[in-house]
Amino acid sequence: MTEVTPAVSESREGPVAVLTLQSGPVNALSAALREGIRAAVERAEADQAVKAIVLIGGGRMFSAGADITEFGKPPRGIVLPDLLNRIEGARKPVIAAIHGNALGGGLETALACHYRVAVPSAKLGLPEVKLGLLPGAGGTQRLPRIVGPRKALEVIVGGAPIGAKQAAAMGLVDEIAPEDSLRAHAVAFAERVVAEGRPLTRIRDREDRLAEGRDDPGLFDAFRRENARRLRGFEAPEACIACVQAACTLPFDQGLAFEREQFLKLVSGSQSAAQRYVFFAERQTARIPDVPEDTPTRPIAKVGVIGAGTMGGGISMNFLNAGIPVTIVETKREALDRGLGIIRSNYETTARKGRLRPEDVETRMGLLTDTLELEALKGCDLIIEAVFEDMGIKKDIFSRLDRIAKPGAILASNTSYLDIDEIASVTSRPGDVIGMHFFSPANVMRLLEVVRGARTERDVIATAMQIGRTIGKIPVLVGVCHGFVGNRMLAERQREANRLILEGVKPWDVDRVIYEFGLPMGPFAMSDLAGLDIGWSRETNKSESVRDLLCERDRRGQKTGAGFYDYDAKRNAMPSAVTEEIIATVAERQGVRRKAASDQEILERCLYPMVNEGAKILDEGKAIRASDIDIVWINGYGWPVYRGGPMYWADSIGLPKVLERLRAYEAEYGDAFKPSPLLERLAAEGKGFKDL
Ligand code: 3H9
Asked: How close is the Cα of 103 to the center of ligand 1, in Å?
């Protein structure tokens, strides 16, 4: 007989039954845990000697909520809403004792209790919206009854957790317990409730805080308007808002029923499936088959950054934000001063917006040393080169670094395209060389492509991945190839977008289709933002492409007030007749046949080659798994998370269909659309990238 560890352990402290949740690393509310709680609560209720019940989490936290792996499977055991109604209806006071996290169903469980105590470091939140869901166990009905609908909207639609002290200020937590004695404090609290004969406060019975929403029903539409841009394309936020609104208009039980109906709709929909996939995919990126989790890492106490331009400055800020000192090197004083000025003004802007304390601006700037001497990097544990994309310059820097850097220092390049192995070849320590490709703006974008060279040591890889996480990035390991994963796939889209406009599709129509699909902007708006003259110069100009001709006319993108689009003083983009004329000229010179394309064709021709390239990347082993590619696109390029990334999206369409369209375009346009052997094979076997 196998022994089953009970999901809930029961103990007694005088008249108080203490029920400790013990289920995996995060106390996810699986069927076993739900049943365990129900049984333990019922036993405690039936026991005459028990006067109050404390629910507390064993291990790291109270609970991270519903077990996400159960969604999409047939329901087992008591459902969470019923369990929580059962707890709320208990005839003895139930007290939630919270440490670590109380998230989603975890917080909903606490809300069903009659009282809540928490340690100061605890985090409380309803992050369901990030999984394409809504709090489906009473959260949308109970939270507004305790904090008011306005705050409830922020917490539920925002999805960000709040600290225990803030939660106490909102009335969500009744008492703050000392950090190291939660259990004893919660038991004492329970004893006091019993001794004083305090009532069983059931949130369901509270109406007072709902007045805010009843007196001002316009607040919901105002919230919708204020957040429209951020929430574009997502289904869950609107459902969350509708539920909070329902809390103000319907009796509690009807509100619960409405919430349940909305939850079931979302949980069976495609957006939540994609967002749940992304949740696990993000965690997968840390798993590298030949670099196990216990691989030793090198300590990183001091970082050097070469180049104080936009990238170098942004990269430095990440480390300063994490309290790691940075030495930043430039070749010219003016460039260095300009770079430092931008870093400072970025911090000051953040402080003005109230997102950074003014004294922290100085603390962070105080961690930054500026210098014109590369030798100053000799004490650094990690040196990141972020200079112009030129192999000659990079090789020169790395051969000098080889002489300067201390033994064991990690030498990283922020190159977006160049061959890390060639860069490493000029050093006597190629095992210490790695790519760390940040995305612009480097202090904001969460993606970090960690580029593994042929000879990069495993502990160097482990260290780069770990330091990436320390500075708040999502590091994804990729292999050496032109443009790595992200830019290599982007190049496919860019090429096809350019072909489309030569055929007569307007750039703004290509951009519109991509934007409506859910990306933040289309290829031409993106080019204008980045600057059309990256890698272009008047001297080497061949006047062959649309870009060449735009640059010749000084239409170099947003910064010059014109590029593919015309821009007004507020940088609003407007279609441009000049661009249309330039495109027509180039198309005629190149003899491109003009033809119309439907929105569907625009979408397929821009995105299917990316998927195809992703398949080649997998086939060549340049990405470990398809979901890593999805994480690159979501976090580096703003691929809509509710579509799960390009590879997941292709799976959801069905690879046979993608293959069929690629073949059709191949017949018309040639090799650019030639399906990759991997895609052919998976389609033939009726499989998807998810099955690799
Ligand atoms: C919900 O509650 C719906 C209800 O309203 C309605 C129901 C009717 N389930 O992240 P970590 C796994 S929806 C299953 O590395 P950390 C995770 O995959 C839920 N598994 O730890 C990982 O597994 P592995 C709303 C989960 O310390 C391991 O646990 N709640 C769940 O960096 C450790 O996780 C949320 O959205 C889960 N709920 O971060 C919260 N949570 O070791 C989701 C985690 O195999 N969770 N796992 O890779 C989190 O945000 C973070 O896990 C947390 C801890 C901040 C709690």
From this structure: 9
Q: What is the Å distance from ligand 1's center to 28 Cα?
A: 7
The listed CATH number (3.40.50.1010, 3.90.230.10, 3.20.20.140, 3.40.50.720) that belongs to domain 303-485: 3.40.50.720
Is 294 in contact with 271 (CB distance < 8 Å)? no
What mean pLDDT is reported for the chain? 96
Q: Decide if pLDDT at 2 tops 50.
A: no
Output b/e per residue, 277-298; b: 16+ Cβ within 10 A: bbeebbeebbebeebeeebeeb
161 lines ligand 1 (CB under 6 A): no
Q: Is the pLDDT of residue 236 over 70?
A: yes
What's the CATH superfamily of 8-268? 2-enoyl-CoA Hydratase; Chain A, domain 1 (3.90.226.10)
Query: Mean per-residue pLDDT for 336-344?
Result: 97
* Cβ within 8 Å of residue 651, ≥6 positions away: 688, 689, 690
ipTM: 0.99
CA of 120 to the centre of ligand 1 (A): 21
Tokens in use for 233?
Answer: 């394309």
Q: Are 263 and 136 in contact (CB under 8 A)?
A: yes
Nearest CA to ligand 1 atom 53: 64
Q: Which residues are catalytic?
A: 108, 128
pLDDT-derived band at 539, boundaries 50, 70, 90:
confident
Angstrom distance (rounded) from CA 240 to CA 266: 10
pLDDT at 1 over 80: no
Nearest CA to ligand 1 atom 56: 64
Q: Give the residue-averaged pLDDT of 511-529.
A: 97
Ligand 1 contact, 475 CB (< 6 A): no
26 lines ligand 1 (CB under 6 A): yes
Give the atom of ligand 1 at the shortest distance from the alpha carbon of 130: 36
